[in-house]
Amino acid sequence: MSILSRHRLGASVFLTLGVLAAGAIAASAKSDVRLAGDLSVVAVWSGAEQASFNAVLAGFEQRNPGVKVTYASAGAQLPTVLATAVQGGNPPDVAVLPQPGLMKDFVGKGALKPIDFAKSTIARNFSSDWTKLGTVNGKLYGVFFKGANKSIVWFNTSVFKQAGIAKPPKTWAGFLKIAKTLRASGTKAYSIDGADGWALTDWFENVYLRQAGAAKYDLLSTHRIKWTDPSVKAALRTLAQVFGDRGNIVGGVSGSLQTGFTTALAQLFTDPPNGAMFMEGDFVPSFVPAKAVAGRDYGFFAFPSINKSAPAVVGGGDVAVMFKDSAAARALMTYLAGPEAAEIWVRRGGFSSPNKNVPASAYPDPTTRRTAAALANARTFRFDMSDLQPGSFGATVGQGQWKLFQDFLANPKNLDRIAARLEAAATAAYKAGK
Amino acid sequence: MISVGIWIVYPAIRTFARSFFDRSGTDFVWFDNYRTVFTSSTLLTAIKNNAIWVGVVPALVTSIGLVLAVLTERVRFAVAFRIAIFMPMAISLFAAGVIWRIEYDQAPERGAINAVIAGVHDAIVPPGALPSALPSTTALAGSPRQGFVLRTPTEPGELALLGLTGILPQDVARSAKQATLPQPQPGAIAGVAWRDFRPGGGTSGVVEREELGLPGLTVELRDRAGRKVGTTSTGANGTFRFPKLESGEYEVAIGAASFRQPFGGLSWLGPKLITPAVIAAYTWIWAGFALVIIAAGLAAIPRDLLDAARTDGATEWQVFRRITVPLLAPVLTVVFVTMLINVLKVFDIILAVAPDSVQADANVIALAMWRASFGGVNDFGLGSAIAVVLFLMVVPILALNVRRFRREL
Q1: Are residues B272 and B390 in the same domain?
Q2: What is the ipTM of this complex?
Q3: Which of A21, A363, A408, B113 makes the best surface tag, with the fewest CB within 10 Å?
């Protein structure tokens, strides 16, 4: 890195300096027996989530009275905040990143310290798919503190009852069949938040993982097969059975493309409900209108199996990484890998831990208990593909996958062109990402 | 001097230099970033949109401000009126954008603008009784727009089954009773129109228990040539009858009126209307600024000049064209040029109003710059290049402004 680029971004650095001021005074711990010093931690969580994470950090301070942990929320700007801080040579001690792609970026820049010291703790607490996700170039860098199960379809129970659907579907064919029944009963089957590109990529990833299998999924997430591969087109054709069922989507396609996450979810709870089903992750209950009660008013089922595929979970997670090596930072990383840390947040609600040793009884409600169990014990767990790819392809508004899947929703007949454009966008992004 | 150096000169030079480096900042790539700016379709859309903004908005805002200033000068509560129009200036552009995003929502139950249009539209063209209904089997052909007709012609003595689905139980009239299959009668066509759905789906095309008749539907009978030979209305159990028919083949249909859709809302936030929609929101905000500046200028115009013109027999239009506007020219230029610069930098309102799915269609240069640098791509090289292009576009206007400024001093 040149001297020049170290000092660039004058304004942004000044903005982020405030956030990261704590990092500047981070001191290294001296003794092995009693840890001491200050640690700075940065993550995306704010509001209620920030309070819960602070409780987790307080648990660490209680065990290590000599260490003071300062948490700063960077919100959605976390990638920028950290990139700038790293360029400025002043990163926090520990950060929790919302995407493993970001972890890979920082490893590439040499900004992260390996955490091999926590290997045994992690092996004890996590299934191997999670350890693999925290590994870059054969070295362990991250531990997944928080997980998200994104293979869930939520539904309004009264609508299902009115339509006479007694059992949620297990297979894709069954899923399409109840969608037809729902439409015939007078309620549109799908509420889709098409304004959010990420939601559409989640649809695709769930279909692809089940239809093409985990091996192909891994190849596609690293662009070792093309987006014009027959397996991709086959998955798009399957997805078109939902996206192409235009009369069965709340607000029609143009309405869906302008509807964001919360509004689309709220369509299940209007009076009468505008839609019956909503596909998204285990975080949905926190956004359901307050008057609706889990179990009574809404339920969920796992994303249906395609061609007899085994249960698989597409998900997300927040990975804790270490920017500065110190005894205190090491202790904090080990602590975050253990079940006790996770349990603190689990009890407070709104949290799924991928840690398999967190007792199921710690979850405050049966819904999270089931979604979290599916997450921690999934035989096949794959990270949200769009989060594994270069940001310009997988996570940017108005371009790459987000935009192209919106174009696909707008016109599913355009399948071959969309696949070709996905491939072109991926090629460009991977080339620039190097 | 030092702060100018730190805050303006240094970042400008750095940005300029950075625009020749790649994403990581290590490789010198000459003009590659600039080539991307002028070849990638997203950035070309941004440039095109910026041209629209520059072409439309300054003129629009200035003229609206002028008209409002002249008009409000004459009304009684001019001050109150001006404050009301100036009010949006007090809100941040982003907040105003969020408000407009909601106003523009396509669903009339959420978006105020479509709600108004829907109110008028549905009062003039009331929606049908069963706008969401669909045929339950392929025996019925057609579409909600054309109405549905039985595919096979019916002869007197036969039954006509008009099964419909997609109807919420609460949308069926209160008077509805269990649907029944009428007795066939010689010389008459009898039939039933019913909600062909019971929990679980039931068997399509068969009248079953728990399936309600659809009362009050208008059923049409047409001869083979498609001429209407009779209409009748369904009873509480959904049955209807066309008695005393000559032998022959008839078509049984439900007219389109029953299925007429309520107004579904204009897609203001769709890819076609998004730029005009954002421009309207932006104009709403800045009209107040133009009004206040121009009104101040107006107050400085010597009254006797206007009165003299009027005494000489000039019409109000002539006074406005020949005296007010020329005297206001310097003020109008200030407003126009200020708006020009504002518009070139326009950014936050687009971010706020346009849903993600059309942000690429609503893109402008400043937004593209932010996106390239911070919005996921994190390509500071490309972002810097866009910034330089934007800067070069603003320079001529700035120069113009500075020159005028000097002249006035």
Answers
A1: yes
A2: 0.83
A3: A21
